[in-house]
Amino acid sequence: MNYLKLFIFFSVSLCLCGNLVFASNCNWIETNGEAAVENITPEEARQLAINRARVKAIEGISNVNVKAITLVQNLSLVADFINTLSAGYVLEEKDIEWSSKTYQEKKDSPPVTIYTVKLKSCVATTLPGDPYFKIKAELNRPFFLKGEEAKIKATCTKDCYLTIVNFTAEGKLKVLLPNDYEPSPFIKAGGVYNFPSEGLALEMHTLTGHKKDTEVFILIATKERFDHLFHSTSISPKEFYNALLNLPSDTRAEELLVYEVREKEAR
Q: Which residue range forms the structural domain that includes residue 105?
């Protein structure tokens, strides 16, 4: 029997919205963020700095403390993902300015590079949802080696339809569910849904040239069918955010699954 493999390519740390160029019913705020190149790559440090600036922007507009998920392994920061879905959306960014400096704690210790970013963000806040409508999900593991398969298990507290998307390295969104082989499933309250279904495989890969990547699956539970909003496997952040903002907040719930993919070590 032939098995369909859905290949997902990820980048180091999630970029919330890429280079977005749209705004709708949002408020502008200027923030800054910084991160040191210490036990992480310069690329990861820059992404961490911009994520921290986005956290401040969302907190400043929504007056909500944004939940941050930090994944740590071997005392090293692997990724910092910002849970914006419960507080607001960064719809546009502009006037991004970068600077760097070095800091040396002691003369006998190596200097550390610190990246600082200043940007203006347009943030749209979300209204409180149904406190009794929740989605819970889990991955078969938090870390994967290249070529291993991911499996997602999801359940809702109320009857729901399930959509699964992920952010790509290019800052775009890929719709994993529904797809050509699986429609958006209807899950009874308390029932369990396993993705992908039998005969399909979600095979994990890093970006070319990357030894490790960290990303996130976003699971969206809705009280009404949501998949008619997505007409292809790839959608823009504008389409995604507008689709969510057009749904009443008490008809949707979100869950985030963060994980890491590593290259296999050469023998």
A: 27-125
How many residues in total does the chain contain?
Answer: 267
219-237 per-position pLDDT tens digit: 999 999 886 656 667 777 6
Q: Model's pTM, two decimal places?
A: 0.73
Helix, strand, coil % (nearest 5) of the chain? 15, 50, 40
pLDDT of 76 above 50: no
3-class SS of residue 101:
strand
Domain finish residue from 59, 94, 125: 125
- Among the candidates 125, 157, 191, a domain finishes at 125
Q: Tokens representing 137?
A: 């999900």
151 and 238 in one domain? yes
Q: In what order do the strands lie in the sheet with 200-206?
A: 4-10, 200-206, 149-150
pLDDT (0 to 100) of residue 230: 63
How many C-beta neighbours within 10 Å does residue 51 have? 23
